[in-house]
Amino acid sequence: MNDINKPSLPSCVINCVVYDKDGKRHDITLDAISDVLAQDDGSFVWVGLYEPADAILEKLQEEFCLHDLAVEDAQHAHQRPKLEAYGNSIFVVMHTAQVVNERIVYGETHAFVGPRYLITVRHGASLSYAPVRERVEREPELLALGASYGLYAVLDFIVDNYRPIIDEFRDTADSLEQAIFTDTYNRETVTRLYELKRELSKMRLAVGPLQDVLTQLTRSQSALIPEEVRLYFRDVYDHALRVNEAIDTLREMLTTALSVNLSLVTLSQGEVVKRLGAWAALLAAPTLVASWYGMNFTHMPELDDTYAYPVLIGGVAVICGGLYWLFKRAKWL
């Protein structure tokens, strides 16, 4: 197998390499793929693409004999996470996520896995898999397990990338919880709580189905997934399960926070209503007495009394004082 130094590749082709039976990397061109596959030497080809043109996918379909339906799915990046088997190959769809301006932006990665090839197709918001390749290339004895180990490395990278997002959202949720218990009502806090819960619900839709994909890979009896690699998929499944549980926990916390915020606002409004009612009652007593003396009656004996006016004022003061004491005792004031 002849190495080609820095082969000329289309811009959408991030890498096109072959790993020999010892796990060593050799760069090749797209046209050389069929020649490599023709040699039954235990090697496998890994092609990495980012939003490829249809012509590139058609070229790879010809080189690897990919199924038409799988290629059609890879051309249209609006798929749910899933695993499909096509003869002696499998097609896997995974959702990737990144935080941009406190919003989760999603992308997709489609993977074609065959006996001697791995094709990863990235769409939308997705980190480069160059660090993944660099990591696995430092473990050539594991790369010698074949293309399925490369698929494991990609899945592990995607799931591990969910963790920082969850941690960031957890910190945001903690700060919003503290803002809830302040003395003043803040509409922006409620809005952020709702937006955060909405983002987590979307993330749940990305992570949840991925667990089913990993379960299928873990239990697969296909020759494409050796027993040694299934153990690694089981580890990724465990990570995805913990991410999913963390998402559910955060969603429950945010739901509780929204309910608590509503309860606190209701209690605060109730306190205001009680204070207004207490002051209204205090004002109602002298208003009622004054309204009596505002009537034009001829016979009002108390008007002839010398001390009628001071007694009236004193009576009103006692009534208001009694009401104030009662409301104060009831903590309405």
Biggest sheet: strand arrangement: 2-1-3-7-6-5-4
Helical stretch tally: 9
The CATH architecture of the largest domain comes to: 2-Layer Sandwich
Counted up, domains total 2
Structural class designation: alpha+beta
Nearest-integer average pLDDT: 82
Q: In the CATH hierarchy, what is the superfamily of the largest domain? A: CorA soluble domain-like
Helical fraction: 55-70%
Strand content: 15-25%
Q: Mind telling me the C-alpha Rg?
A: 36 Å
Task: Give a summary of the structure in a few sentences.
By secondary structure, the protein is α+β, with helices and mostly antiparallel strands. The protein has helices spanning 33-38, 54-64, 68-75, 130-137, 140-143, 147-180, 187-219, 227-293, 308-329; strands spanning 13-19, 25-27, 44-50, 82-86, 89-100, 103-114, 117-124.
Structural features, described:
- With 333 residues, this protein is an alpha+beta fold.
- The chain has 2 domains: 13-264, CorA soluble domain-like (Beta Polymerase, domain 2), CATH 3.30.460; 272-329, Methane Monooxygenase Hydroxylase, Chain G, domain 1 (Up-down Bundle), CATH 1.20.58.
- It has 9 helices and 7 strands; from the N terminus they run ββαβααββββαααααα.
- Strands 2-1-3-7-6-5-4 form a 7-stranded mixed sheet, sandwiched between helices.
- A hairpin with a 5-residue loop joins strand 1 (13-19) and strand 2.
- The chain starts with 12 loop residues before the first strand and ends with a helix.
